[in-house]
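Team,

Forwarding the record for the chain on the shared tracking sheet. I've put the sequence and predicted structure together so nobody has to dig through attachments.
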Amino acid sequence: MKIYDINPNTNELINELGRAAPLDKMSGGFKVTGNSTNKVPKPKKKNKINVFNFVIGEWELKPDYRGLVYYLPESQESTEISEIGVEPPLGYLTEPPPTPQSELNEALVFRIEKQRKEKEALGITLNSVRYAGNPENRQAISEAINFLTEVGLTEFPLWKDSDNQFHKNHPLLDVRQAYKDIGIRRSELIGLECEYIRQVFDDGLSDVSNLTWK
C-alpha cells in the first residue's frame, strides 16, 4: 500500500509518487503514519496543487501560483503571490507595463528644468569676478545694490564673490552690470528650456542628457 505525506503547515501534497506504507509490527499489516493518507491524489494540473481536506478526508486541487510576480496593466508596482489558493487577477502582466508617454514627458521636462537651473546657478564672470546666478545669490546681489545706493556709496569696502574670494573697494557699477548680465543670461536659458520642452512634445525628443546650454 502507498501512502502520501501531507505538509503539516499547508496541507499540500509532499510526495506525488507516494511511498510504501510501513508495516505495523503488532498487527502485521500496513499502517498510515501521522500527516499522511492512503487516499490517491488527483491528477496533477498546471498551476494546481493537491491539498488535503481533513474535513471530508479527500484531496482537492487548489490554485498554486506561489512565486509568481505580476503587474496590473495600469501600475508599475509588482505583487508576489505567496499563498496557495490565491490567483492572479484577469489581465495580469509578468513584466512592468510601459510607462505612459505623459509620465515620460513629465520626467523629461523635470530633467530639462533641472539642467537649466544648474547652468543658471553658474552665473557670469565679470572682470575676473564670478557672480552666481541661483535665486538666493540674485536676491543677495539685489539687496546689496539697493543698500549701497541708499547710503550713497559707489564701492563696496569688501566684496565676497561666488568663489569665496574677497575684493577690496569693489565697484558698484560692476555689481550692477553683473546683476544685469545674470538676468540676460537667465532669460536666454529659460528661452532654451522652453525650446527643448517644445521639442519633447512636438518632435518626440527623448534624450536630454547632452543638451546644449550656450
